Every structure is written in structure tokens, then in C-alpha cells.
Amino acid sequence: MNLENREAFVIPFSVQKSSVWKEVIRYLSEKETTPVEAICHSRLVSINKEYYPVERLEIRYTAKWNAVSIFKECWTEQETHYEQQIHYFDRFGKEHEKSGFDYYDTKAKRWKSGVLHPFTSTAKGYSGDALTKPWEPREVTVPVTENVSYEKETGRKRNSGEVKGNHTYYHDKEYPFPLHLENHADDDLFSSIIFHSDSVENQKIPYSQEAVKDGMVIRQSKPLNENDIDTELSKAKSMAKKECIWKIPGQSYADLHMEFDSDEICQIWYCPVYHVIYEFSGQKYECFVSGNFRGSVGMQMKSGNRLVSDEREDSVKGKIDPEDVSIENIKQQYDNEYSALKDRKKKCWLKFIWIWLGVCGIPIPIALLFMPLATIQNGIGIIIISIVTSILPVVFVGTAIYLCWKNYKEIKNIKRELSQNNEAKKNIVPFRQAKKKTIMEIILNDNLSDREKAMRCEAILKNQI
User: Fold this and answer.
1) Residue from 59, 35, 93, 47 nearest 278 by CA
2) What's the first-to-final CA gap in the chain, in angstroms?
3) Residue 446 zone, left/alpha/beta (φ > 0; ψ -120 to 50; rest)
4) What is the domain partition of the chain in residue ranges?
5) pLDDT digits over 127-142, tens only?
6) Which of 80, 96, 291, 410 is the least crowded, having the fewest Cβ atoms under 10 Å away?
7) Could you please report the per-residue DSSP string of 202-249?
8) How do residues 141-181 score in pLDDT, each as one tens digit?
9) What sign results for the dihedral spanned by CA atoms 210, 216, 220, 224?
10) What totals of helices (H) and strands (E) does the chain contain, helices first?
């Protein structure tokens, strides 16, 4: 195929330049990893029109097939055969397909059959101690009934026919924004330009210098070559063969022959893209907006100047974009607070032990302190010891109960704070998305002045998480 003499077409810009910045703001507000401040603090630097060449290879094929159709009669029958299997017998002679145990119920004073719990190793349905004996395995002969499929050939006939179809391939390698034509991903500019737009075939016009004078034409770094065409031809042949097989009558086929004929039509489509550069927090970022399909925005993939992160690239490079850091910092704060609360809770449980150890341990040295009073002959020492020993337990027990009550209340408060911490961490992204949507609506409201927009946005940002 001669790749030099190809038709070239231009898809004109149909999205107005004045709406491009609004599309970028809307796009940033919908992305979870974008900082809230970026919606109102980003400053537009420039918007340039660019035409990106996409080579469109269309393979129109005709496949003539000739094959022998095999007709069969198919049916199923139930058949029984005998197999040797291991079955298990309990102490009562009952047969089981799976292993199990007999256990002695100490409360009922008799043996029962059951299976052990896989984790607690106690007999199922029995909570106390159990003496267990495994069931006896034996090899037995059992009947097995299965549905068996049968088929009988009833005739053969040679048939022929043809299928027609086409296979289209868009060659757009090495562009700076994400391209996923097969999956139609959200960030795929070219799929939105070529597939989602209405009547692209009717929009395109022949290429000329006059047609692209309003923008810059981007040079291809890896144009379509013969190897690419051979690869797509192989795919087209495979598609044609599957279609031929689908068309052959009967339950099976044999002696298939296929004649494949194709016409390759290669065109270059110059797709309209707005190249947007904007600034946020002292750093410049760039993104790309479809020039003929509203709402399609893609971010830069090749450099690190990306405001919205892409997990596929980050997972390879191991880097975190600024917006991810802001969210991760907030999550880390919640994690640190959660760990501190867990430590407090652990200390509170330890307090219970120390309180009751104090109740049991402190009276002993006090009693030893008052022991010399017992040597006083007139009985006053005995009276004092009696009074002290009768009052001290009440004092210590009362103090211990009061301290335990305070400790219990503190544990309840910690549990409530842990629950609030988990809920707040779970709602970080939804809460931020709601704020971004509110700020976006303010920014895109043409009825508000710039000063009023700034005031309202700042009021919302003051309540930032």
C-alpha cells in the first residue's frame, strides 16, 4: 500500500474558545484528587488551538468461504456406573460421605454424633468439654448416575458463501494525553472526537493550509508503517474467519477454505484540540480539551506537571502529585489521632487493674502501721484498730468505685471519638467533592462579579477539612 498518497482531512473546531476554561474548571471539580483550592485559585495562562494528526486505516474486506457442513443428532441419556469411594461410619453404624466425630456429652451422659468446629475444635452443638472419636473410614462401592451426551452424524453437505465487513484502526501513538480508544475512557480525547461527536464524516473538510491556519499542526513522531498495516490485516482476516465459521450451517464443519480480499483506505484526520496552560500555587500545569466535543478534557501524561493524578503512571513511578499529598496528609492526621485514642483506651483498661490492686494492696501496710497500737494495755489501741479497719475498706472501695466510674466514662468517650474519627476519615472525599461542586457553581456563575465570587469561595475554604 502506498502510504505517501493519502487523503488528508481536517475536523474543524466547533467548541467555542470562551467555554474551554469553564470545561477545565468543571473537569477539575469532578476529580477526587484535585485540591479544593485549585477550583478558585487556578489562573488561566493561555489557550492555544492545535491540530493532532490521527491516521485512520479502514480495511474493507470480502471473504468467500467453502466448507462441508456436518449435521448431527444430539441427545443425552442417564447412565449409572459404580465407583469405589471412602465413606465414614459412626459408632452407631450410620454412613456419612464426609468425615466427622462421635463425642461424649458429659451433661447428657451419652455418646452423640457430630463434627468438630474447625476453629474451636469443640463438637458442633455442644459447649462443654467433649471426648471425641473420629468416624471409621471404609472403602465402599456406590452407584453414580450421570447424564451422558451422545451424537450421531445424519448427513454432510458442501456449502459456500461470503461475508463482507470492515475493520477500522486509528493510529495515534505518542501523544501527550491519555488515549484509550478501545475502552472509551473518560480522559480519551480522540475517542470523544472521532466516536462521540455527531456526524464527524459530515464535519470533516479536505486538508489545506487555509483550513488549519487558526492553529498549530502537531508533527507525528511515529507515523503509520507497513508493519502496522500487516498487523491490522491479520486482525481483519481473523475477524472474517470467525464470521465465516458462524455462517456455516450444521452442528460442525470440515474442509474449510477461505478466500480473503481487502481494500485498504488510509486517511489522515487532523483532530482539533485546545492546549490549555494554567497556574496554581506558583506552578504551571497543562491540559487538553476536545475542540469539537464539549466536556472532554485530558491531562498531560509525559511530564510531571499534572494537577490531577493518574494512578497508572503513579504506580509505575511511585510519585505522588500535590493533590494526593493534601488528602494523604489529612488521612494521616486522622490515623495519628486514631492511634492516640487507641493508646488512651488501652491505658484506661490498665487503670482498672491498678485501681483494684491498690484496693487490695494499700490496706496491708496501713494495718502493719497500726499494729504497735495493739500493745497498749488499756484497750485504746484495740478500739482504734477496730475503727480504722472498719472505715478503711469503705473508703478504699468507695474510691475505687468512683475511679472506675470515671474511667468507664472516659472509655465511652474514647469509643465515641473513635467512631467519629472513622466516619470523618470515610467522608473526606465526599465532603471535599461537595465543596468543589459548590465552588465550581460559583465560579461558573456569570451573574456574579469577580469580587463576589472570590468572597464566597474564601468563605467556603475557611471551613476546609
Assistant:
1) 47
2) 61
3) alpha
4) 7-68+158-310, 69-151, 326-426
5) 445 577 888 899 999 9
6) 80
7) HH-EE--TTTTTTSEEPPPSS---HHHHHHHHHHHHHHHHHHHHHHS-
8) 999 999 999 999 999 999 999 999 999 888 866 565 544 33
9) negative
10) 11, 12
